[in-house]
Amino acid sequence: MKILLLLLLILFSGLWLTSYVISYRIEQKFPPIGEYVKANNARLHFVDTGAVADSSKPAVIFLHGASGNLRDQMHVYRPMLENEFRLVFPDRPGQGYSESFPGSHDPKEQAKSVALLMDELGIEKAVVSGHSFGGVVAAAFGVLYPEKTAGLVLLAPVAYPWGTGVDWHYDVASIPVIGWLFTNLLAVPAGSYIYSGAIERVFAPDPLPDDYERVSGTRLALRPASFLANARDVSKVEAHVEAFHNRYSEITAPTYIFHGNRDDIVSLDIHSVNGLAKDVPGARLEVLDGVGHKPDYVARDKVVAAIHEIAEGTSHASQ
User: Does the structure show a pLDDT above 90 at 303?
Assistant: First the structure.
């Protein structure tokens, strides 16, 4: 028995050390690149490009999806828009370098963090763009903070109950004690091993951009605390949409939805065609033929055009 316990101790120590070393190397490669503000009693990490000459234009806030961070969409949209709009790229609570907090898995609380960030930055109204899980946060923001919402751009958004559950590792990571062991001992080395194939599947059938691994910083999601926060987000989001989706009719801001018809991760029919497009007054849905789960990359020109259309219909949006 003593030998068995010793072997288990050695195994657990080796796995913990491996996870620590991999996490350290990831953080060295992708360090914080923004500022911090206290929101919802937790530090929120964000990049703010600052005010632009035309102060009548709304700011634009980009909310990344599950297992993401602010680098993902910043890499795409900052070069395209920063000369025209004030852009804000936050790490959602628990992801990147933002702290999680009790209840931070709730999209309503994440929307509150965005609203508090806007207050800190002196932004009165913003176009809020959200991809995947960021889409459910953006939709909640549009319902709860209409006075702050200049428009919504929802990209392959999660928004409605789907009834088939989530991948097993999200549920396992959320179990007390077992979840800690899983995220601290196994998730980092196992996730590192399958990382490249996993991000290829997120883009499929679209090709993975050559520089995505290098610039997106998505390996940050493998670190134990981020992995656990992401698992709680994903495993609990269906409970949120079950209780909240009936409120989407309260959204009053211009709303654009882009969703690929080859998306195997978030159902086009459930969440967009038979969901948001019907329930959000005046929502404009564009179904992207042959596109998978990353319209934020594949349909970037359409996203930028939608932001411009919203801005042209918005005046006196102070920043």
Answer: yes
Element counts in the chain: helices (H) and strands (E): 13, 8
φ/ψ of 87, rounded to 5, equals -115, 140
Residue type, 281: P
Look at the domain 2-158+166-312 and name its fold: Rossmann fold (3.40.50)
User: Beta strands 35-39 and 42-48: pairing type?
Assistant: antiparallel
The answer to whether 108 and 144 have CB atoms below 8 angstroms apart is yes
Report yes or no: 293 and 266 within 8 Å, Cβ to Cβ: yes
Euclidean distance between CA atoms 43 and 207, whole angstroms: 35
For residue 264 the two structure tokens come to: 């195997």
Q: Which of 214, 204, 306 is nearest to 264 (CA)?
A: 204
First to last CA, the chain: 66
Residue-wise pLDDT for 35-67, tens only, equals 999 999 999 999 999 988 788 899 999 999 999
Long-range contacts at 173-179 (CB < 8 A, ≥ 24 apart): 173/227, 173/228, 173/231, 173/232, 173/235, 174/228, 174/231, 174/232, 174/235, 174/236, 179/228, 179/231
Which token pair is 220?
A: 């940050």
Tokens representing residue 315 in the block: 């005046």
Locate the domains of the chain by residue range: 2-158+166-312
Closest CA to 88 of 27, 28, 156, 39: 39
User: Rounded to an integer, what is the distance from CA 199 to the centroid of its chain?
Assistant: 15
Q: Is 80 helix (H, G, I), strand (E, B) or coil?
A: helix
**Bridge partners of residue 154, in order along the sequence:** 130, 257
Structure tokens at 103: 């209840």
Residue 154: which of 274, 9, 259, 281 has the closest Cα?
A: 259
Q: Flag whether pLDDT at 263 surpasses 90.
A: yes
| Token pair of 290 as six digits | 């042959």
- Beta strand 87-90 pairing with 42-48: antiparallel
Cα–Cα distance, 304 to 309 (Å, whole number): 9
